[in-house]
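Hi Y.,

Following your request, here is the sequence exactly as I used it, all 171 residues.
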Amino acid sequence: MAGSTANLLIGKGILSFDRYVNGLPTGMTDLGNAPNFSLTLSPETLDHFSSREGLKKRDLSVVVSVTLGGKFTLEEYDINNLALALYGSVSGSTLNALAETSVTGHLKFVGNPATGPAYQVDCWKVTLKPAGEIAFISDEWSKIDFEFTVEDDSANHPSQPYMKITKLTES
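Below is the corresponding structure, written out as tokens. Let me know if you'd prefer a different format.
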């Protein structure tokens, strides 16, 4: 119900990733402590302007494409997290950086908020992109930042080709 403090959110939760190798899932893996996770909708518009007067005036704006993406940060320097950021593969305790040209998979968030409603977010097929440096020396807690783009997965999820958000609990 709108207009209720029960809908105010201090978000927390668990972020997991199922990396696809040769287009096939390898199994959902907990990514460890993730202090942020957010979604971003980016519409691209085409504007039309009237040329009937000396000053052009916009008289129509049409959405021509929409990109769904987001960002998250990981704090745990697990070798598999590093492999995601460095487009690498892992064999035992060795990471082979740049073994892939991209990283795709299923990104899943299960909310466990301090207050507010809990949600589960399933982004069926995302492409990850590292979004900054990977610091091995720092006076602060090191972190690994990512951006992602949600891709169409109509083949596997025809009724919800990009993502599904499920409300798990009331606050």
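The first helix runs from residue 79 to 85.

Thanks again,
Q.
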